[in-house]
Structure formats: structure tokens, C-alpha cells
Amino acid sequence: MRYAEKEGLDLVEVAPDANPVVCRVMDFSKYMYEQKKKARENKKNQKIVHVKEIKMRPTISEHDYQFKFRHLCRFINSGDKTKISIKFKGRSIGHPELGRKVLERIIKEASEFTVTEQMPTMERQDMSIILAPKKVK
Predict the structure, then answer these.
(1) Are residues 125 and 97 in the same domain?
(2) pTM of the model
(3) Burial class of residue 107, CB neighbours in 10 A (0-12, 13-18, 19+)
């Protein structure tokens, strides 16, 4: 403690559970500043992945399908994950195979540039899948 006071530094307890207790002489405020600076740098370099959503119906027309598929391509090319939902209303909920057919078509057509993270799952009145961009080597 006298040495730390003489040098004008702080005595920091590193391992309080060790026997004897391990301490270090350092400038604690400088250490904390460097830790915050590292955290900011790491935060700056991280990639934020957004999940975009596309909603469809099981009886979607060909033109609407192509329009939504182009949106899917745009989302994937920008690096975002995409959730595709098929919304069932009224009597269409009795025919989930129609929605599954649409989702399987999307998976097949987008397989060259996407990876299927979640296969078709039914949640109440929605059937959905999640597609992510393929990793570039």
C-alpha cells in the first residue's frame, strides 16, 4: 500500500479468493478508460442482423408471388434474415398443404443464395420459415 501511495497509483485486488490475496499496482482510471475504449471499438465492428418479414396468403397469384420473391432477394442480398409467413384465414386453415407448397417453392427457388434456418412450422393461423443468406467464403 505504501509503494502504491509513493508512486501515486492505485492498489487493485485481482484475485480476492486466492491465498494470499493477489493485488496489483496500477492506474485504475486509465485501465477503466482503456476497457471502455475497447468495448466501443468492438461495438463499432459488429454487424447487426435484422429480421425482415414477408407475409403471403396460401392462394397467392403468380404476379404477387414474383413481386414478394424479388423483395426476398433484395433483403437477402443486403445481409438480412427473412421470415416468410403464410397467413390462413377462414376455411383456408383447413388446407395447410397449400401454404406448405408455397413455402417449399420459395425454399427451392432461393436455395442457391439462402440457407433455411427454420423449416415450415405452424403457429395458430400462420405457417412460417426463416431464411438467412449463405456465408461467403
Answers:
(1) yes
(2) 0.64
(3) middle
Tell me how far apart the alpha carbons of residues 50 and 23 are, in angstroms, rounded to a whole number: 44
User: Please, are residues 86 and 99 in contact by the beta-carbon 8 Å criterion?
Assistant: yes
C-alpha distances in Å from residue 84, one per residue of 38, 113, 123: 38, 16, 13
CA distance 98 to 87: 11
As a whole number of angstroms, the distance between CA 18 and CA 45 comes to: 36
Cβ contact 47:79 at 8 Å: yes
| Co-location of 56 and 33 in the same domain | no
Q: Render pLDDT for 88-119 as a digit per residue (tens, 0 to 9).
A: 998 888 888 999 999 999 999 999 989 998 88
